[in-house]
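During the reporting period the student researcher (J.K.) took over the structure-prediction task from the postdoctoral fellow and processed the backlog of single-chain submissions. One of the processed entries is reproduced below for the supervisory committee.
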Amino acid sequence: MQALALAALIAILPSSHLDTILERGEILVGTTGDYRPFSYRRPDGEFEGFDIDAARQLGVSLGVEVRFVQTSWPGLEQGLLDGRYDIAMSGITRTLDRQKVASLSDSYLSIGKCPLIRRADRERFPDLDAIDRAGVRVGVNPGGTNESFVRGHIHAAEIVVIEDNLSIPDAVATGRVDVMLTDNVEAVLVANQDSRLFAVLPDSPLSHDELSYMLPPRDSIFLNWVNLWLHQLRLTGELDRLRERWISGASSSQSDHHHGSAELSVPQLLQSLTAMPVVTQRVFKGLQK
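J.K. obtained the following structure tokens:
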């Protein structure tokens, strides 16, 4: 009798996405492909970045194949809810609004917003107050935390919505817009790659946020598994190796200390990374290929 009752209970319990993934032999990973150094779709169609490498390690740990599904920031949550992918991995900031509709994993990186400006405008835009003025144009991509931050803090300056996040730094450099407000990791990365650009005070960001992975709601089995997997990445040093590959301290190209930059060596970076539970906001450099 008890066995029958247990079997009936098991039959009505909801299955986990983890079971579905294992049975399918493949995990579908949603990613935007427009946010270096976490997710970038190259011209040949292949994805690369911190979270792309992490997703491949996730597949290895699960013993399944990995298939990337391109998504967008405005459609990120809905794509997950519609079942287009099992997990979203794309430098996703933990927010209370996202937690309302999805599950968010433990954090793996600390970040914060900072302005990306033209190097020639360092005296013009030393802080947010100087940016939020009439006549200033702030470029932002729709649907993510960059837009939320801009709309919550920019009131006098003009907000220019640009669909392609990857094109906004060039819009700043060429004068189409004056400022991009984005995560300090991205700001320093693109400033390292384009001498016309400058990241303002990346080590003293305008916000303090954390990145995580987004999973379907109300699936504690899958969420607990991913959190344990992240924990084991920390224990084995794999998470540190991902950070070392894709994020490696402040660039010497931004070494003007009077304007909020700091020149750190790779050993200093590694020491800073191991000193913090996630990663500090003080150590950012560009993409290493």
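The committee noted the following: The chain has two domains: 2-110+209-246, 112-208+255-275.
J.K. will present the remaining backlog at the next meeting.
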